[in-house]
Every structure is written in structure tokens, then in C-alpha cells.
Amino acid sequence: MKFLQCFCVVDSSLRILWVGGDWDDFALRNGGSSVLANDILATRLTDHITDAATAGTVEQMVAAVIDTQGSLRMDYRCDGPEELRRFRLTIKPMKDARVIMVHELRDAIRLTPPMEAWTFDPAARDEKCSVCGMVHAPGGSWTDPTLPGVQHPVLVRYTVCPSCVTRIGAAVAGILDGAEAGDVGELNLMPGCNPS
Ligand SMILES: [Zn+2]
Q1: Distance between Cα 164 and ligand 1 center (Å)
Q2: CATH of region 5-114+162-182
Q3: Distance from the CA of 36 to the center of ligand 1, in angstroms?
Q4: pLDDT for residue 22
Q5: Where are the domains of the chain?
Q6: Of 27, 44, 87, 132, which residue is the least packed, with the fewest Cβ within 10 Å?
Q7: What would the pLDDT profile of 33-71 be if each residue is shown by its tens digit?
């Protein structure tokens, strides 16, 4: 497995000040040509997130790290149709109300057969959690689309599923309460995870 790490520094308004590591490599592999490093500097991180739930989650986490000067560490999934990928995001405080977000690839598993390729559609009926990658049809339960017998919906809109909302809320509450480091929950912020 190729080691992959990306960095992103943002200020308190989520303006992107610096990106580094394998950012472009990852974006290109995942069809995220619109989020190459040179194009996103000085834009807001939330401009590249397609849904309000995920954007709000990111804002909440960054604000908590700036307020407390504590760190948040969260595991998340950023699957492609042919690969299950586990990432870890660490958000650490920096000087002058800035934070660094570090994404590390922890594990990649080839999917045979691959999942159905999916497309983002803001009007889609089915939802996909941008944190854990689970999918959900109206009235159905949240399901891991990499499990045998589960079909990935072709059109999805992104959101944060209830269990990820709970985990992230607990991690944020943890550092706001003065815990050493929030270490619960998962979050998806990689370029290309939420193609728009
Ligand atoms: Zn989730």
C-alpha cells in the first residue's frame, strides 16, 4: 500500500492557507481535478464540501480546536468504487488561531467485485454519509455498501449519518470539557471524496 498523507492549514474562517503532502496525487486519482492545491489556496474549505451537514461538522471541529487549543483525531472512510479506504484525520492547533489538518491513509482494501460507481446529485433520493461511507435509502437503515449483497446507489447526496453526528459531537464535547484529545468519530474531508 502506498503511504499517503495530506496537510491543510486553515484559519478560523476556514480559509485555506496552505496545502501539502500528496494532496494533488490523491485528488487526481479520485477525479477531484477541481480541488488541486493551486486552485484552492485562499478559498474556504467549506466551498469544496457539497452538503451543509458535513460543512457544519467541519466548522464545529475547527472552532473547538481553536477555542481549546486541544487536538481532535478521527477515523473516517473515503472509499472509491474499487477500493475501501480508511483514513485518519488529526486537527491540531497552530499559532494565530490557525489549525493544521492532517489526513493519513491507514488502510486500503481492493474490492472484488467493485462497487457500482456513484455520482453526486443534490436532488438524489439516497444519502451517503461523508464520514463513514454508509448509504441510506428513504425509510431504510444505514448500510455499508462494501458488504456482500449491498448495492451502492448510483446517485447520492452527501450528509452526516446519525451515528457519526453522535460520535463527532462526543469528540468535540470531549475537548471542550478539557479532555486531552478528542478521539471519537470520523470525518471526511479529502479532496475527491465528495465529487460535486
Ligand atoms: Zn456515518
Answers
A1: 4
A2: 3.30.450.20
A3: 26
A4: 82
A5: 5-114+162-182
A6: 44
A7: 667 777 888 899 988 888 999 999 999 999 999 999 999
